[in-house]
Amino acid sequence: MIKISPQTITHSPCKLSLDWLNKYAHEWIKNNVEDAGEIWLPDDNHLALTSHFPKGEKHTEVILTGSFLMRLIELPYWKFQEMRLWTFSSKLKKTLSEFLDISPNMIGLIPHPNHTKKELDLKSADLVYVGRLNWTKNIEALLYITSYLQHHFSSEITLSLVGKPDDLPDESLGRVEAPPFEKELQKIINHLPWVNPPKLYGHQDNWKGFLNDKSHFISLSTSMYEDFGVAANEAGEKIPTLLSSWGGHWDQLGAHLIPSEYIFHSYEAEWIKKRKTELLAQSLTHETFYEAEEITPYIPVMCHHKELTEACLKFIDRHSPEILLLFREDLDTFADTDKGKTLFHSYRNHFSERFSSLKTLHIYGEEAQDYPFSKEAFLIPERDLIYNVYQKLLFRDFEIETNGISSKVLDFLTNTLNLSDIKNVASLDKEI
Questions:
Q1: Which of 44, 220, 366, 381 is the most exposed place for a label (fewest CB within 10 A)?
Q2: Per-residue pLDDT reduced to its tens digit, 218-256
Q3: CA distance 393 to 411
Q4: Are residues 256 and 383 in the same domain?
Q5: Whether 295 contacts 90, CB under 8 Å
């Protein structure tokens, strides 16, 4: 979330990407919307708080990107009456519509540039990641999969990381405490076996100069801000692009979309990391990908400040008082609350669309065994069953596996919910 202090206006760490998006939105709207109003990208601190704030002399085209939660809380204070809302991502449009309980025709879609799909050559690939290095970008999973592929698929594969480390936590799953990423990065690298260790280049203005005939862009990001990958888009013009099936990546034509259900997160147990790395490797080496979705551009209806304010206030009321933490630059603390976790779990499900191919719910606890769960399994920590977004899954046509869960949770499943035919994989392992 962008940090704003009343005493000083600081540039977003994504300033270069925001500048690119601002220019791209201006060009697209000016060329495709006859009655275009003043175009405003409120994620940029300077555009939001300085003389660049819209004057209200004409309707405003508001471009909502990754920090949309803060924008929704700010919206009642905006001083213009008529506006149109826009996004770059079909998944963010769906999320906004459902969170605010407003019609989808009130949210416009600006399409991503159309790139042709480039043929993969993974056996000799120079994998290149460009962007911020942090937990929410799943850099650890990227390191694991590269190490695994070097030893089990091709020793010629290399990895280059271009970008600055930061400590952004993984809010998209609810806040999980983690140590500073920059200090842990080298520990993770030292922990893994390598044929060719990854190269860290730091921030590079001319990162495209690193690309060659073997370069393949890759991002396993499941960041809540992933509505338009600027670096991925620029890379997609020239080289094969491998992206997580997540958020705005779904809309990048020409990309090879890696199933996000096979991408682990830093807080998960080591047995989960190893198994998901195996499944991710199978997807890559067998070229089992999802297809990106072509966006149909959509010009939204005009919104009035009053009706949007009412929708935003209802949204705030549903999550109050905890959501007020956002005013205190404390998104991570909000994500730790029950309401925050429920919201972010719901958000994650909108961005991933991961339930369509799953057949098994694998519920695991503190005493979970190292178990080779299937690629159709959806993993749920037992502590997360309190959230309605997951309880609803228990009544769908899934097989249910339990792995080291507490007797309290098992009683809840069998007695309270009257679920039967639950497979206890931990006890099966003990019998074997």
A1: 366
A2: 999 999 889 999 999 999 999 999 999 999 999 999 999
A3: 17
A4: no
A5: yes
